[in-house]
């Protein structure tokens, strides 16, 4: 079993090699090229997984729309790309190209002994968000390393480049996370419940966390931890249902605090916010909503598993502390 305090991944330096892989949905070539150009602009040496541009339609029969059941290669090929990149000693970070769905399917195909051996004395970075939450949970629990939740190479970092001109966009957040530590400060946040909390940061995309409950890959209990939650394209009643599942399962028991990111395109924003607040405020711990992380236009990066401080008075989530 890994130590209860995960090993912190090592920050990058200009010239480091990073591998871009696609553990989930199919990748658009133009967006991938644009994202890789951004990464090279940060001074990184970018290599691509063998199957990163593969497209596979799952055979679920003629009644199922093919465009909703595509993955970036077979489960075995996507797992091989991820394993090869993680175990390559020349690669300092494994960056996921995009989310979608399919990452949970990889968990039974990964050679965890090989991945543990490939972690090395100085753990490398696994970076991605959304569907990649499944990999964050598994790598943290099985390998005992911190991971990086943030914008992806063929998705958010090329979606709104103008937002980075003022240093507040996805690229600025990614740069700060990969090359150094930082604080998410957001004066526009909403304090659901006042307070200050310290503990390791856990969580990710709400729908993926609930999908893992009851499986061999379920996230470790959130007791003593600051829980980050966000999601996209989920109606308020579904948010209520998923939060209720986390509460009823006991997963949230003893959590130190709750940090809520964007709930982008989740119906009426006021309704979604009210539903989430109503389910979580009775826990009696600090809750800060509206942090610029997740699927929204501003997407900063979080180090899951690392020590963090949530301070509703200062309106910030501070990570990367000693």
UniProtKB/TrEMBL annotation:
LD-carboxypeptidase N-terminal domain ranges (all copies): 18-149
Gene Ontology biological process: proteolysis
Active site: 130, 230, 295
Record key words, sorted: Carboxypeptidase, Hydrolase, Protease, Serine protease
SUPFAM superfamilies per record: Class I glutamine amidotransferase-like (SSF52317), LD-carboxypeptidase A C-terminal domain-like (SSF141986)
Listed Pfam families: Peptidase_S66, Peptidase_S66C
GO terms assigned for molecular function: carboxypeptidase activity; serine-type peptidase activity
Family according to the record: Belongs to the peptidase S66 family.
Record protein name field: LD-carboxypeptidase
Gene3D superfamilies documented for this protein: Class I glutamine amidotransferase-like (3.40.50.10740), LD-carboxypeptidase A C-terminal domain-like (3.50.30.60)
Residues covered by the LD-carboxypeptidase C-terminal domain: 198-309
InterPro entries listed in its UniProt record: Carboxypeptidase_A_C_sf, Class_I_gatase-like, LdcA_N, Peptidase_S66_N, Peptidase_S66C, S66_fam
């Amino acid at each position: 079993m890994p130590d209860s305090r995960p090993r912190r991944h090592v920050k990058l330096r200009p010239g480091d090699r990073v591998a871009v892989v696609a553990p989930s949905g199919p990748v658009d070539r133009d967006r991938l090229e644009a994202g890789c150009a951004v990464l090279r602009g940060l001074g990184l040496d970018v290599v691509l997984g063998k199957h990163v541009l593969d497209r596979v339609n799952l055979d679920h029969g003629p009644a199922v729309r093919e465009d909703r059941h595509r993955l970036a290669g077979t489960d075995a090929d996507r797992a091989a790309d991820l394993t090869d990149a993680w175990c390559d000693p020349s690669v300092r970070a494994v960056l996921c190209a995009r989310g979608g769905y399919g990452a949970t399917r990889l968990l039974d195909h990964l050679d965890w002994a090989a991945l543990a051996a490939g972690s090395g004395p100085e753990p490398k970075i696994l970076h991605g968000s959304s569907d990649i939450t499944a990999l964050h949970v598994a790598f943290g629990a099985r390998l005992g390393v911190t991971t990086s939740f943030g914008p992806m190479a063929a998705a958010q970092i090329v979606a709104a480049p103008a937002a980075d001109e003022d240093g507040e966009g996805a690229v600025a957040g990614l740069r700060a996370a990969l090359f150094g530590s930082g604080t998410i400060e957001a004066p526009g946040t909403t304090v659901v419940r006042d307070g200050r909390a310290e503990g390791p940061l856990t969580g990710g995309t709400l729908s993926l966390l609930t999908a893992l409950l009851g499986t061999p890959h379920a996230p470790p209990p959130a007791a003593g931890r600051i829980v980050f939650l966000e999601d996209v394209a989920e109606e308020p009643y579904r948010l209520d249902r998923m939060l209720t599942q986390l509460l009823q399962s006991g997963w949230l028991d003893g959590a130190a605090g709750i940090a809520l990111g964007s709930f982008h395109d989740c119906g009426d924003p006021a309704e979604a916010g009210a539903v989430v607040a109503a389910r979580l405020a009775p826990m009696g711990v600090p809750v800060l909503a509206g942090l610029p992380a997740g699927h929204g236009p501003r997407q900063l990066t979080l180090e899951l598993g690392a020590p963090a401080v949530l301070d509703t008075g200062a309106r910030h989530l501070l990570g990367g502390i000693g």
